[in-house]
Amino acid sequence: MQLTNPEMLNYLDTLLKYGNFTKAAQQLYISQPYLTQTIKKIELDLGTAIINRQANPLQLTEAGKLYYQYLEKLELENAQLLKTLALYQVKQPTIHLGILASLGQFFLPNLLPKYQQKQPEVKIILNEALPQENEKKILNNELDLYIGQNPELAAPNLTVYERSAEPYYAVIPSRLYETSLHVMNQPIDYALLLSKPVVLTASGSAIRRQVDQLFSKFKQTPKPLLETNNIYTAVDLAKKGYGLTFTPYSVLTSLQESENYKLLLIDADILTSRYFIAHHKDKKLADYESDFIQNFLC
C-alpha cells in the first residue's frame, strides 16, 4: 500500500501546479504512465477518486482534499519525530573556528595535527575572514573560538587568552636599502624607513592595524604600491624588489637574507605581534574546547 508514501504529497502538489499528468510527470522526471498508475493505485486503496479528471486544470475531489490533509499531517509528524529523536543521538563534537586566512596558513598546520591526535573525534569548521567579521560572528554565537591579533582591540564581551608576543621585521628590497644603507643601522631611522614605497595588507586586517599605528606614531603617511589580503603575498613581493613590507616573525620562519632583500628587526617597544584566542564571555567551554585553547597557547 502506497497511502503513506512520502512522495505522494510531492506528486499531488505537482499535479495541482501543472494541471495535467503529462506536464507533472515531466517536472517529476518520471513517466506519465507511471504517475497515472500510481494515482490509480492510491484511489483503489482508498476506494474513491482523489483527482477530478473532468476539471481543467486537474483538481482534488473532496476525498482527495482529505487525503492531502492526511499527507500534510503525516509529513509534519515525521519531521517532529526526527527532531525528537535527534535529541537522543550522540552528536559529533564540533568547533567552529574563526581565523584570518593568512594567520591560518601559519598556525593551523602546526596546531591542528597535534590537536587531532589528542581529540580525533572533534570536527573543526573554519571561517576564514577578516577580524571584523569573525568578531561579529563570535559575539552572535555563530563561532565557538576566534584566533586573532591585537588582543587590546578585542571586544569587551570576549574572554581573551593571549599567546606570547613575537617580533616584527621589515623586509627591505635591495633597490631600497642599497641607496639608504643608514636605514639598517641602529638605532633605526624609522621616519626614513617609513618614507619608502610599501606593500601593505588590506585595511581591516590585524597586521594592517598595527602597521598603520607604526606610521601614525612617526607621523608618516604610507606610500602603498599595492594592498593584498595575504601577508605571504606582501612578503614575496618585497623579496622580489617590489616594495618593503612589515611582517611578524612567524611568517619568516623559513626565510633567510639574500642579495635581493634584507631583514630588519623592529624594536620590540615599537612594534610586536600579539596573538590571542577568544570566546564569548557567556560561553561555557566543553573539555575539548578548553583543550584546543591550551594547545594554541603552548
UniProtKB/TrEMBL annotation:
Matching entries from SUPFAM superfamilies are given as: Periplasmic binding protein-like II, Winged helix' DNA-binding domain
GO MF terms listed in the record are:
DNA binding; DNA-binding transcription factor activity
Taking every annotated instance into account, which residue ranges of this chain make up the domain HTH lysR-type? 9-61
Q: Which InterPro entries match?
A: LysR_HTH_N (IPR000847), LysR_subst-bd (IPR005119), WH-like_DNA-bd_sf (IPR036388), WH_DNA-bd_sf (IPR036390)
Q: Which UniProt keywords apply?
A: DNA-binding, Transcription, Transcription regulation
Give a yes or no for keyword rRNA-binding in this entry: no
Q: Does the keyword tRNA processing apply?
A: no
- Write down the PANTHER family for this protein, in alphabetical order: HTH-TYPE TRANSCRIPTIONAL REGULATOR, TRANSCRIPTIONAL REGULATORY PROTEIN, LYSR FAMILY
**Which family does this protein fall into?**
Belongs to the LysR transcriptional regulatory family.
* The name this protein goes by in its record: HTH lysR-type domain-containing protein
Q: Which organism is it from?
A: Enterococcus columbae DSM 7374 = ATCC 51263
